[in-house]
């Protein structure tokens, strides 16, 4: 049994720091090569602590969506989506540049760094040219 010791900021803090620097990264296991998201201290596939940060393609497909309805004075409606990245991980985000009702399951999207609901950097998606 391997005992992992971790120093420095945890994986969530590392992800936020990388995103704040304008870079989108996910983890990849050096032992089993699995891609990982949400950031974790050990690989959920094999238990290894040999994780590195890699740049994903950003290519994704909408797995599921919902529309959150709000009054116009509170910002209006917005979407929440689950996106399957080409690397095999799923993440929650939103799609920009399209009306919430026009987002469809299976829609091709591309990741970029935008602004989160609280003003912090966040991974957001836009429809690819093929989906428009």
What does this structure look like?
- This protein is mainly beta and 132 residues long.
- The chain has 2 domains: 11-54, no CATH class; 59-131, OB fold (Dihydrolipoamide Acetyltransferase, E2P).
- Helices cover 8% and strands 36% of the residues.
- The protein is built from 1 helix and 8 strands; from the N terminus they run H-E-E-E-E-E-E-E-E.
- The protein has one helix spanning 11-20, and strands at residues 26-29, 35-36, 51-54, 59-68, 78-85, 90-93, 108-115, 121-127.
- The strands form 2 sheets. It has a 5-stranded antiparallel sheet with strand order 6-5-4-7-8. A 3-stranded antiparallel sheet has the order 2-1-3, with no helix packed on it.
- A hairpin with a 5-residue loop joins strand 1 and strand 2.
- The protein is globular.
- The model is unreliable at 1-5 (pLDDT under 50).
């Amino acid at each position: 049994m391997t005992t992992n010791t971790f120093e420095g900021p945890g994986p969530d803090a590392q992800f936020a720091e990388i995103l704040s620097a304008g870079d989108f990264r996910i983890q990849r296991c050096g032992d089993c090569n699995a891609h990982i998201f949400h950031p974790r201290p050990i690989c959920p596939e094999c238990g290894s602590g040999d994780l590195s940060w890699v740049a994903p393609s950003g290519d994704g497909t909408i797995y599921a969506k919902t529309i959150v309805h709000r009054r116009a004075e509170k910002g209006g409606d917005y979407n929440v989506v689950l996106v399957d990245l080409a690397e095999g991980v799923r993440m929650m985000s939103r799609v920009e540049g399209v009306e919430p009702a026009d987002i469809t399951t299976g829609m091709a999207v591309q990741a970029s760094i935008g602004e989160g609901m609280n003003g912090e950097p966040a991974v957001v998606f836009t429809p690819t040219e093929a989906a428009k």
